[in-house]
Structures are given as structure tokens and as C-alpha cells.
């Protein structure tokens, strides 16, 4: 049995936070696959590559010059792209939206496949994304599809941005979330959807701890922990 758990779902569903907590709790590695798509988008903008230039984007994705370094005093992995710490630069709404455009291109997805699978080691892996259970790790023994209403996800994102000093209207965030959901769910390649054997969790009215407990139960049910 592969020691991997996949957590897929739309942005703001809480999967990033849950994946981090589980990775710390279990001592398993973490794959934040969205960061890879964000890095391709960031690199494209940095190097003036058009977001529909399939060949150039695939080449960039295949040769992505990124290292994930453990930050001193924390367990967080920091993406260092072409020698620069880009942790906060790739987290902007602009980069998220550009990421969802490049992520719709098959050659870009193909170029990132081996890099994502290489994160799986004997230590175990929590894989967070949109197609972790459907495409990247189809044999994962535990697959989670984490969802929440668009309104709840917009409110979470709004509070996150407010806490980091950014002022954005909640209506604009909701609009951006709906546009991104629409693009991610309706693209031809690896659309966002639950794997047939996924456990679906709606986190709208759950705390992070409750979600982590439900996933931990699923892991112990199959004997992974
Ligand atoms: O999860 P995050 O918001 O960082 O992902 C940014 C974008 O990257 C998503 O909107 C989605 O289009 C794309 N993505 C993807 N497949 C993944 C992870 C992210 O298509 N496995």
C-alpha cells in the first residue's frame, strides 16, 4: 500500500491548512501542488511569457528552477525560485488566477507530473491539490475531497487578507473564487472533481480540528496510522 493521502478541493476549502497540520502530526512530507502551478505562472510573468504560449510554458514547467527550503525556526517549506524567496509573491490573487490559466494546458500538467510523483518517499506524503487523487496518485489508499460553500471560502480568504493588511472587497473575492472554480472544474484536462473512491468532506461548518480528526479516522480505518 502506498503511504500517501490525497486532499483535493477548490481554493479556500481549507485543504492547505489541513494538509500542513497532518504533515506535522504524522511526520509525512507535504506536496503543495498548487505552488508548482503558481511558480510556473510567476516565472511566465517574470520572463514575459504569454499565459497561452503552450510550448514556452511547458518548457518553463519542465525546467522549473525551484528548491523548497526548510525555513529556520519553523517547519515551513519556502519556495526559492531562481535563487529568490518567492513565498509571499506567489500567494497573490493575480498569481492564483494566472496559475489556473496555465494549469488548464495539458503540456504544462504533463511537464509537472514526474516532479510531483517524486515527492512520494517511504516517509509518507500528504498531497494537496486538484487532481492528486484522480491523476497524480490514483492508487492512494485514502483520498479526500474537501469542499465548502463559495461564500464561506470567500469569507475565509477575506479574513486572511485583512489579517495580512490587504484591503479587498468580499464581493470581488467571491467573484474571483467563482471564476477560478468554473475554470478548474470545467477544463478538459484533469478537471477538479472528487475521485470515484474519495471521501467527501464539507468543511463549511466544521473547524479545522474536526476536519483533521475525520481524516485521521480515515487513515486509521485503512491501517495507515
Ligand atoms: O491551490 P492553489 O490555489 O495554490 O492553486 C492555484 C491554481 O493551480 C488552482 O486554481 C488550479 O487551477 C491549479 N492547480 C491545479 N492542479 C493542482 C493544483 C493546483 O490545476 N493539483
Layout of strands and helices, then pairs:
Layout: E1 4-8, H1 15-26, E2 29-32, H2 33-46, H3 54-62, E3 66-70, E4 77-81, E5 84-85, H4 93-102, H5 106-117, E6 125-129, H6 132-136, E7 142-147, H7 150-163, H8 170-186, E8 199-202, H9 208-221
Parallel strand pairs: 1-6, 1-7, 2-6, 7-8
Antiparallel strand pairs: 3-4, 4-5
Helix pairs in contact: 1-9, 2-4, 3-5, 4-8, 7-8
Bound molecules: cytidine-5'-monophosphate.
Residues 11, 33-34, 37-38, 96, 99-100, 103, 129-131, 180, 184 line the site of cytidine-5'-monophosphate.
Secondary-structure element string: EHEHHEEEHHEHEHHEH
At the fourth level of CATH, the homologous superfamily is P-loop containing nucleotide triphosphate hydrolases
- Average predicted local confidence, pLDDT: 95
Give the DSSP E fraction (strand runs of 2 or more residues): 15-25%
Structural class: alpha/beta
CATH class: Alpha Beta
Span between termini: 12 Å
Low-pLDDT parts are: none
Strand numbers in spatial order across the main sheet: 2-6-1-7-8
What is the total number of structural domains?
1
Count of runs of 4 or more consecutive helical residues: 9
What small molecules accompany the polymer chains? Answer: cytidine-5'-monophosphate
What is the C-alpha radius of gyration, as a whole number of Å? 17 Å
Shape: globular
Q: How many beta-strand segments?
A: 8
Amino acid at each position: 500500500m502506498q503511504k500517501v493521502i490525497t486532499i483535493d478541493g477548490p481554493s479556500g476549502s481549507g485543504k492547505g491548512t489541513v494538509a500542513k497540520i497532518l504533515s506535522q502530526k504524522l511526520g509525512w512530507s507535504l506536496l503543495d501542488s498548487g505552488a508548482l502551478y503558481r511558480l510556473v505562472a510567476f516565472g511566465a510573468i517574470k520572463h514575459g511569457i504569454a499565459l497561452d504560449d503552450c510550448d514556452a510554458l511547458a518548457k518553463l514547467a519542465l525546467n522549473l528552477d525551484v528548491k523548497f527550503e526548510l525555513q529556520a525556526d519553523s517547519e515551513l517549506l519556502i519556495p526559492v525560485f531562481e535563487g529568490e524567496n518567492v513565498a509571499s509573491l506567489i500567494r497573490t490573487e493575480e498569481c492564483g488566477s494566472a496559475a489556473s490559466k496555465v494549469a488548464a494546458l495539458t503540456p504544462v500538467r504533463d511537464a509537472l507530473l514526474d516532479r510531483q510523483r517524486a515527492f512520494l518517499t517511504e516517509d509518507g506524503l500528504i498531497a494537496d491539490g486538484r487532481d492528486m487523487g484522480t491523476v497524480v496518485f490514483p492508487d492512494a489508499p485514502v483520498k479526500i475531497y474537501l469542499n465548502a460553500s463559495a461564500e464561506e471560502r470567500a469569507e475565509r480568504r477575506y479574513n486572511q487578507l485583512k489579517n495580512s493588511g490587504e484591503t479587498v472587497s468580499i464581493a470581488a473575492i467571491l467573484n474571483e473564487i467563482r471564476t477560478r472554480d468554473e475554470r478548474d472544474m470545467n477544463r478538459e484536462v484533469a478537471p477538479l472533481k472528487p475521485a470515484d473512491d474519495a471521501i467527501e468532506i464539507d468543511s463549511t461548518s466544521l473547524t479545522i480540528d474536526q476536519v483533521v480528526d475525520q481524516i485521521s479516522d480515515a487513515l486509521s480505518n485503512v491501517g495507515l496510522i
